[in-house]
Structure formats: structure tokens, C-alpha cells
Amino acid sequence: MLLRTLLPAVVFILLFVAIVSADELDSILEPISVTERVYYFKGSLDGRTYENQAFNNNLAFVLTNDGVVLIDSGPSRKVAERVEQAIGTVTDMPVRWVINSGSQDHRWLGNHYFAERGAEIIALARTAETQSRFAEQHLARLENVLRDRLAGTRAMPAPEPVEADRHAVELGDVRFELIFAGDAHFPGDVLVHIPDEGTVFAGDVVYLDRMLGLHPWSDIRGWLDSFAVLEALEPEHVIPGHGAAADLDKARAETGDYLQAILDGVIEGLDDWEQLNETVDRLADMPRFRHLVHYEEWHRMNVNRAYLDLESNP
């Protein structure tokens, strides 16, 4: 009798969880128009979760006369399939190319799905090498988060990566430029410039609305070199790796200025022979960046990692 009474409630809860899980990805996969040709999907600002299917980054796609160019392919086969379906709400044209802007898991683990569908995978050799180096680690971490939702995902860097730091390609009537100017969030991060649309897909070179993260493998000086190249391009539209698309001024205020403030502050501490904890404490509060999501979790760690990097690589 008790089981019969509880069964409807259990079924309702399971249905509610399933609906919430589906709805989170549905809301992420609403194409946002930047120009008539350029769209993007705005990932969650939270960390990777089962509910957001580790889709906490931005992807973009561009309409050409000869098909669709997708910039980054998502964190899993299942997400890649859903991305393809979402693109189908805008155009009937197939995804012809996938350009990889970086090496973090959610930027390229959908490559294999699109390659099976006939798309060409395009990446610089620097990017593909880092993908290969981190692949096993990324899949293991995602398996803990996505569990059954990682099924069928295969790590596939670009089969024929480009041995260059700048590479221009054209599909239909749209030109794309892959530009490497320095290792950033991950080694091999690139900018994807779409000059005729006044747009740069900045990947993990730009974080907006949320705090960027410096990892042990990040390079703050290379990151700033990449940001300087972005500034020189003078784009009208910047699609960041995380957060809402914006103009160059906002990109500078929330990424370029932050990186420069960390770099300058840490160099000052090293020049004054400060200990690590003294530099972290001195730079512990930067009020103009406090509005960024995850500031409390990441800011002090960013200072810490920048200090260790610059101390060992003066």
C-alpha cells in the first residue's frame, strides 16, 4: 500500500529531473544572432555539470553559400548531435567545416561526430598537439561528470593539422583566419577572425561576465600577447569563449585589463622580493572585477598561479 502511494510521487520527481536536465541544454542551444551570417550558442556560466552536459562554453557557427562552418564542437558526441539539430533551426545547410579554437575538452570532443557526418576538421598543429596531450585526462574527468551522457564520445584532433601560426581558409564567400599569437588559457589557443563580418571568435582568449582561470599550464604573458592581436584586429563583435558576445571595450575591461593587473601586480611583488602569500594577500581584492561570476573562487588562485609561473619563468 505504501509503495502504491509513493509510486506516483517518485515518477513525478524522475520526470521533473529529466525535464530540468533537458531544459538546461535546450536553453543553451538557442542560436543567438551576431550578424546575418554569424550565430553563437552561449554556454552556462556554471561549472561542468550533468545537467548542463558540460556545455559551459560558447560555440559559434557561420552561414556561407556552400554550407555551415562550426567553430568548436562541444564536450561530447551527444552534445554535438544536439548542436547540429539546433543549427538546423536556422539553416538546412550541412556543417561542412569544424574549426577548433582551443584544446579544452568542451571545444573539440564533438569533432568525431561531425567528421562522421562528412565535416572537415580544421586546427593549427599547436592546438591539435595539446588536444592529444590532454585527451585522456579530459575524458576521464568528463566521465565523472557526464556518466552515461559521455557514451560514444571519441577524442579526435584534426587529422591533418596546419603547421603554421596563421592560416586563412575560405568557404563559399566567407573568409576565416586562424591566428596564434601566444599560449593562453591552454597552449595553442587561437583567435578565429571573420573579417568581412567584423567578428572575432576569441575562444578562451576572452572571458566575459565570469572570471577567467589561470591553470598551471596557462601562460599569462602569451595570453596578453593574444589579446593584443585581438585589439589590433579592431573587431566590431567579440564572441568570447565564455559569456555574452560584446564589443572590444568590454573584452578589454573584463579580460585584458584583468590579466594586465595581475601581471603588473605580481611582477611588482617579485621585484620587491615578496613571498607568495604576501603578493596574494596584497592583490586579494580587485573591486573592479568583483562583479564577475566565480570571482571569489578563482581570483586568489589566479594570483597564486601567476606568481609561480613568473617566478619560475622570469
UniProtKB/TrEMBL annotation:
It comes from the Bacteria. Residues 56-242 form the Metallo-beta-lactamase domain. The keyword Hydrolase applies. The keyword ATP-binding does not apply. SMART domains: Lactamase_B (SM00849). GO terms for molecular function: hydrolase activity. Keywords: Hydrolase. This is MBL fold metallo-hydrolase. It comes from Thioalkalivibrio denitrificans.
